[in-house]
């Protein structure tokens, strides 16, 4: 059995901020990566999300929706519409030079084309995708070349996307791009059919204040992934953990308020991932090999967050059943925190 309760910290969290979202129209979504280990069918995922009042369910990877067979996608789309839920679907890397790109699935253009067809069938307005990860900032190929290569792939599917009324939402993913870098990719590819899947947790993996990322990308946002982070100073620079909503120090309540105001009507999909510590030794010169072009004023805003943070302990090692239960609990505590923030 699941022995330890993790409900104590955020269940009654920051009600001091509760007035901030009252009266604002939050279009609640759930990114199924939050509950990636539950091993449910897409119909079970939809039932669960409907119970929590989600209006958008974000199938961020093909595995969550099961497969791309047309009859299957039709059934999923019909079931979602019965629940008054909009489906968003997604895929992984589209950049042929990224460490995360899978050439076994075909060219980048072929992979996106399949997903556009799937989006038409299931009724998704977007296809979410990403460039790569933090490893693409430090390899033999410069990040700027990866961005150019990804933009070329996207331009190759422009006609198909436009003809089918679909847009491609590129995520700032796993430390691959800072906000202005993703903005550059979108503009190179074509902002008439490419936009952002704005992730509030990944900026900290690029030593960027999530508010800076939002400021860069707000005009391009198509959808989002939302979670909280705690960042603190260390003897070598900074460290951070992703947390449940309300347990971090990046000002997530204010970030959510800004997002709702700057990106009206766009889905705010919770992607709750709780991690152990990730270090950023930025006092070591070699660290900056990955961030040579980051403006000092942007980094200063990240450093200011770290100055106000408190170190967090490592999470206890859990059995597989405990880990699966905690994953679901982390999302539900965050959903309750958000409802409290809204005053609902």
Highest-level CATH class of one domain: Alpha Beta
Beta-strand proportion: 15-25%
Distinct helical segment count: 11
* Biggest beta sheet summary: 8 strands, parallel
Q: How are the strands of the biggest sheet laid out side by side?
A: 7-6-5-4-3-2-1-10
- Our Rg estimate from Cα atoms comes to 19 Å
Helix content: 25-40%
CATH superfamily of one domain: Divalent-metal-dependent TIM barrel enzymes
What's the mean pLDDT score? 94
Give an overview in words.
- This protein has 344 residues and is of the alpha/beta class.
- The chain has a domain at 18-228 and 250-274: Divalent-metal-dependent TIM barrel enzymes (TIM Barrel).
- It is 37% helix and 17% strand.
- It is built from eleven helices and eleven strands.
- The chain has helices spanning 42-51, 62-65, 70-82, 108-122, 143-156, 158-163, 179-189, 210-217, 252-262, 296-307, 320-342; strands at 28-31, 56-59, 86-93, 126-130, 167-171, 194-199, 221-225, 228-234, 237-243, 268-270, 278-280.
- The strands form two sheets. It has an eight-stranded parallel beta sheet with strand order 7-6-5-4-3-2-1-10. Strands 8-9-11 form a three-stranded antiparallel beta sheet.
- It starts with 27 loop residues before the first strand and ends with a helix.
- The relative contact order is 0.16.
